[in-house]
Amino acid sequence: MPLRRYAVAVSFLTRIPVARRVPPGEREVAAASAFYPAVGLSVGAIGASLARLLPLLPAPVLAVAITAVTMCVTGAFHEDGLADALDGLGGGLTRERALEIMKDSRIGSFGGAGLTLLLLARFALYQAIPRPSLPAALLVAGGLSRFGALPIMRYLDYARPGGIASAHAGRVGTSALLAGALLPLLLVAAGGSPAAHALLAVVVVSAVVASWLRSRLGGYTGDTLGLAVCLCEVASLCCYLGPGWGGR
Questions:
Q1: Tens digits of per-residue pLDDT, 46-60?
Q2: Is there a contact between 235 and 202 (Cβ–Cβ < 8 Å)?
Q3: Which whole-number Å values give the CA distances from 92 to 36, 97, 108, 157, 222, in the listed order?
Q4: Helix, coil or strand: residue 103
Q5: Residue of 197, 192, 226 lying closest to 209 (CA atoms)
């Protein structure tokens, strides 16, 4: 059962074609949310492997390689959500208009600007983080960023019926949240102070995003979860800059 739920989570959050021969039901999709951090850790492990296996690459080239490979694995799933969410939240003056804009597949000015800033932030952080710390930073950021979506799914209502996240609406209970928190706690135990700071940063970012979504939309959508994941990832990576990060 846990392996099946992990496979469902992998199938939902990435382009890896597992658990697609037998389509999951709504209950399976909802239960799989507890495994989001594990999927994020797996994606982070791919980036960490590149950092380990390609030590001679110049920092800018490695940063581009990590970004490109991990986005191919996920199908830019969260990045697409960030762009759509920012278009809606930035361009929609009312709740209804914001939700309508989010459904438009085209990227507007807010979405384009937000996506550009996200990629620039990753590019800069992958280079600024000391090379010996980069694999651990990618692992922790991958796991913790996906965990950042779970409190939002637990404590906010779904903002509209239908849509890619509707199967989760009102179904992420306390048990799923606690189960999803196990991996982040293990990462903190293994990763020490930087990982602990990263978890704290993710909790703060998740709470701020949840408060913003409650006031603007009265709930969350699948796109806004992508926004939360991307912001939590950047916050996690920042915790690995360390003293004297401006020099190499």
A1: 999 999 999 889 999
A2: yes
A3: 30, 5, 12, 20, 17
A4: coil
A5: 226
Q: What's the token pair of residue 9?
A: 């989570």
pLDDT tens, position by position, 181-194: 999 999 999 999 99
d(CA 178, CA 61) in angstroms, rounded, equals 38
| Residue ranges of domains in the chain | 2-238
How many degrees, rounded to 5, is the angle at CA 117 between CA 112 and CA 120? 125
The DSSP-derived string for 151-193 is HHHHHS-BSSSSSTTGGGTTT--HHHHHHHHHHHHHHHHHHHH
**Which residue in this structure is represented by tokens 């915790």?**
239
Distance between CA atoms of residues 193 and 243, nearest Å: 13
DSSP letter for each residue of 77-95: HHHHHHHHHHHHHHH-SSH
Please measure the distance between the N-terminal and C-terminal CA atoms of the chain and give it in whole angstroms.
46
Residue 46: name the closest of 70, 29, 76 by CA. 70
pLDDT in tens, 123-146: 999 999 999 999 999 999 999 999
The encoded tokens of residue 43 equal: 């994606």
Q: Is the dihedral angle over the CA atoms 230, 231, 236, 238 positive or is it negative?
A: positive
